[in-house]
Amino acid sequence: MEIHATSTIRHPRERVFRAYRDELPKIAAYMPNVRQVVIERREEGAGWLKLHNVWTGKGEIPKVFRSVVNPDILVWDDFATWHEADSFCEWRIGLRVFNEKFKCSGTNHIRAEGANTRVELRGDLQIDLRDIPGVPRLLAGTLRPQIEAFIVRMIRPNLEETNVALGRYLDAKPLSSSGEPA
């Protein structure tokens, strides 16, 4: 199932890129559906940066899915490779539960639009419900699109809200006289 989110942020591309890449734990305070983001690992190379962030969401699992969806689904691993020269990020999300049955990956492109920045996220989510405890084999094919849609409904607002929160975070962060964040 496709995931897509596009936002315009009223700040220069370089500032948006660096904040998105380097300041997610601080930006999380501006996201109502996220409890926290913790940087687990950071690895730098020539022109790239790899991050492993652990996100903890807020929310409740609908009653109809509680027998199938573990509450640990509210914690996920975000593996991202940021490419500074091209202002984009390749990412993959891993769940803490039935991770081998869950695939979610995509890209974020960060482009200048005049004085503003356009952030476009494109991704894909696939879940294999076969052999998952609590899911009858005969219903796996029928439940798959419903559970994928539920997870996309959980993920998409966080992705969109990340861009909104990033804008609010940058709005609240003053610039020095040289134009750099203070």
Q: What do you see in this structure?
A:
With 182 residues, the protein is of the alpha+beta class. It has a single domain, classed as START domain (Alpha-D-Glucose-1,6-Bisphosphate, Chain A, domain 4), CATH 3.30.530. The chain contains 3 helices and 7 strands; from the N terminus they run βααββββββα. Strands 1-7-6-5-4-3-2 form a 7-stranded antiparallel beta sheet. Strand 4 and strand 5 form a beta hairpin. The chain is elongated. The relative contact order is 0.23.
Computed over alpha carbons, the radius of gyration is: 18 Å
CATH C-level label: Alpha Beta
Kindly report the CATH topology: Alpha-D-Glucose-1,6-Bisphosphate, Chain A, domain 4
Q: Order of strands across the widest beta sheet?
A: 1-7-6-5-4-3-2
Give the domain tally: 1
Provide the residue-averaged pLDDT. 84
Shape: elongated
Distance between the termini: 41 Å
The number of helical elements comes to: 3
Number of strands: 7
Tell me the major beta sheet: 7 strands, antiparallel
Query: Which homologous superfamily in CATH is the superfamily?
Result: START domain
Topology (SSEs and partners):
Layout: E1 2-9, H1 13-22, H2 24-27, E2 34-45, E3 48-57, E4 75-83, E5 88-95, E6 102-113, E7 116-127, H3 140-172
Antiparallel strand pairs: 1-7, 2-3, 3-4, 4-5, 5-6, 6-7
Outline:
The protein is an alpha+beta fold. It is 26% helix and 39% strand.
Main traits of this protein?
seven-stranded antiparallel beta sheet, elongated, alpha+beta, Alpha-D-Glucose-1,6-Bisphosphate, Chain A, domain 4, 7 strands, 182 residues
